[in-house]
DNA sequence: GCCGTTTTCGGCCCGACTGTTTTCAGTCG
């Protein structure tokens, strides 16, 4: 649904970047940036809007609407093309390096002719940046470090990006003649936090029409190789897609094989070998006679190996096979278990949708409760005030009952300052149903300071949830350095909930830290941190991450009924005496 | 370029931090 909107949003963002790189008016650039965000978070498909409808989107005026219309009609925007011709694409990539913005990117391009990240790295290491006005040795160091952070992503893309691509390709393959089934496998099906390439699996007797659907797809930029069972292409956005076609009767075996992980499969095959069997993408066979024992469904394959079906999100060889054998796999939390969201924003701060729209979208998800948690005043750019917050509370109270039986909770997202303190005095904090507290500044404090800061936030009796605890941004910002074992111990001791932030660019906590925190007996909340109604759909990424962290519904407080949740929020453990 | 209980011009998200400066520019949330 939102894919076209995201595409247009990306284009407007690019135009904004290009305006800044070419020394255009900063306010004009900001207009396009604002429009980009607004379009990306707009719930209606742009293709269904006329000029008037487009201009009704906040931040979209006549000029932006014309550009969108031009793009929808021709697939291009002349103004964007004109600027692209002036700025090599690598220069815009330079802007993505932390600590490098449009000014520095333009400077190195103009003065040194640097037009790729690699060239900038060379220049920084060779000391050639030191001669530029306003740049020194320290800047060069930061740039080198920034490039390292950027490269740790290793060309992988966000799960949301990969999923949108996979859905589109799979839909096209399903339309091909003779296609019986088609879905995606690989790390995308396991819902790893980032994806290196997309594996699409299809079932058909004749692969040719399916292959043609992929190689002829508008998203395909280059065919890397094509045979009867496997075809690989590079898409227009750089991501590789592998299509595998198996006979319908081997669907289950193929799905197990291509879902992985490699380590999970190795263990499955070893188990097969010990039982005198052989497991491949074509099925489970007797090792000697070659008779096929199972291949039609995943359940068949696992069952023939003496195992229950294991959810894809668990297939990482982290003990899931042993647990399955011992009957200790448990029931991972599912999207259906979630009864509400405890971290959402409205246009009172940096959200895009007004309160009523966010609540209506939450209600459509049939939630039992939702907490509205706009930013607190210490994040100065949000211009929060006591009066605004209290007015929102009144508005929320007035709306109570307007969305069926969905309970509206009033919360806030506090800012954890470098010492571990938060916005507002206790008497004001006491007025909220729920407080999320997050780090939004001072990301570079040393380990001891970050640890102390988070522990103190946990010890604050008014802080119920620590939001996006590591503050990482996948591929863009490293997690803060803290002794998370100590933080988890503090969270468990104080009854502070740790967030599994479902935003695909965060997924924070990630699966491994969830497992570590779980050992301490911590409770979790899977929250969307939605800044637009469409972001509520990100819940699935958070739930998948929780599954990968081996969480059951019971350990996730927003699967609890309202009464239980409210008792928990008011527990003496978290409240100061009196 | 967008927008209007400041309404067709003149503002626009504010403040901290960092590294380079000697009073400030760039970046970030």
TrEMBL record:
One Pfam family this sequence matches: PHP
EC number: 2.7.7.7, 4.2.99.18
GO terms assigned for molecular function: exonuclease activity
Catalytic activity of the protein: DNA(n) + a 2'-deoxyribonucleoside 5'-triphosphate = DNA(n+1) + diphosphate; a 5'-end 2'-deoxyribose-2'-deoxyribonucleotide-DNA = (2E,4S)-4-hydroxypenten-2-al-5-phosphate + a 5'-end 5'-phospho-2'-deoxyribonucleoside-DNA + H(+); 2'-deoxyribonucleotide-(2'-deoxyribose 5'-phosphate)-2'-deoxyribonucleotide-DNA = a 3'-end 2'-deoxyribonucleotide-(2,3-dehydro-2,3-deoxyribose 5'-phosphate)-DNA + a 5'-end 5'-phospho-2'-deoxyribonucleoside-DNA + H(+)
Domain Helix-hairpin-helix DNA-binding motif class: 52-71, 92-111, 127-146
Boundaries of every Polymerase/histidinol phosphatase N-terminal domain copy: 340-418
CDD domains per the UniProt record, alphabetical: NT_POLXc, PHP_PolX
Function summary: Repair polymerase that plays a key role in base-excision repair. During this process, the damaged base is excised by specific DNA glycosylases, the DNA backbone is nicked at the abasic site by an apurinic/apyrimidic (AP) endonuclease, and POLB removes 5'-deoxyribose-phosphate from the preincised AP site acting as a 5'-deoxyribose-phosphate lyase (5'-dRP lyase); through its DNA polymerase activity, it adds one nucleotide to the 3' end of the arising single-nucleotide gap.
Organism: Kitasatospora arboriphila
The keyword Nucleotidyltransferase belongs to this UniProt entry's keyword annotation: yes
Record-linked InterPro entries: DNA-dir_DNA_pol_X, DNA_pol_lamdba_lyase_dom_sf, DNA_Pol_thumb_sf, DNA_pol_X_beta-like, HHH_MUS81, Hlx-hairpin-Hlx_DNA-bd_motif, NT_sf, PHP_dom
Protein name from the UniProt record: DNA polymerase beta
Location of the DNA-directed DNA polymerase X domain: 3-316
Top-level taxon of the source organism: Bacteria
